[in-house]
Every structure is written in C-alpha cells, then in structure tokens.
Amino acid sequence: MSKDAKAMDVKIMGREFRISVPDGERDQLLRAVAYLDQKMCAIRDAGKVVGTERVAVMAALNIAHELLTMKLPGTGLDAGELARRIAAMQSAIDASLASQERLF
C-alpha cells in the first residue's frame, strides 16, 4: 500500500473485504462498492446463479456490458465502437510509420 493510500473495510454480499484506497477516492470507491453489491445481490436473489464466484463473474460481465454499450455524450457512439475506431486509427498510424521508417 502506498503512503497516500489507506485501508478501509467494505461489505459486498455480506462479506467483508479490506481494500486500499488512495486519498480523495474514498467516496468513489464506496459508490462502486454499493453498485457492485446491488448487482451481485440482485443476481443471487434471482436464484438462477449459484455460488459467490459465479455471481461475481456474472456481475462483472453485466457491468462490462453496460460500460461497453454506454453511449458517450455528444458522440452517438458506444464505448465499444469508440475502442474499435481507436484501434483502427492506431493500426493505420502504425502502418504509416512503418513505411516511413524504411525511408531512413
């Protein structure tokens, strides 16, 4: 743990975890813990998934899906499409730079 981070205890699905959190990020971490706890409890309470590990994986998949399909303000793009466009631009840049390196 770095010197500007502090340990704090959080509860997720009734289990306690000790987490290191940088100064100034405590409130964000608590919001993330509350969101994850809500997602995991909803999956567990639905009764379709058994086992804490499986519940955690399903919650992670659901949250990742939410993130990747979230529309970015002012762009009309979701995060997944933006990542694909950035990768395509990076490939084009790499190809262009590769041909330039041969000139020198």
Strand content is 15-25%
Note the overall shape: extended
- Uncertain runs: none
Largest β-sheet summary: 2 strands, antiparallel
Radius of gyration: 20 Å
**Helix/strand order:** EEHHH
Description:
- The chain is α+β, with helices and mostly antiparallel strands and 104 residues long.
- The chain has helices at 26-46, 52-69, 79-101, and strands spanning 5-12, 15-22.
- It is 60% helix and 15% strand.
- It has a two-stranded antiparallel sheet with strand order 1-2.
- A hairpin with a 2-residue loop joins β1 (5-12) and β2 (15-22).
- α1 (26-46) crosses α2 (52-69).
Question: How is this fold's topology laid out?
Answer:
Layout: E1 5-12, E2 15-22, H1 26-46, H2 52-69, H3 79-101
Antiparallel strand pairs: 1-2
Helix pairs in contact: 1-2
Characteristic terms for this protein:
single chain, 104 residues, alpha+beta, two-stranded antiparallel sheet, 2 strands
Produce a short descriptive summary:
Helices cover 60% and strands 15% of the residues. It has 3 helices and 2 strands.
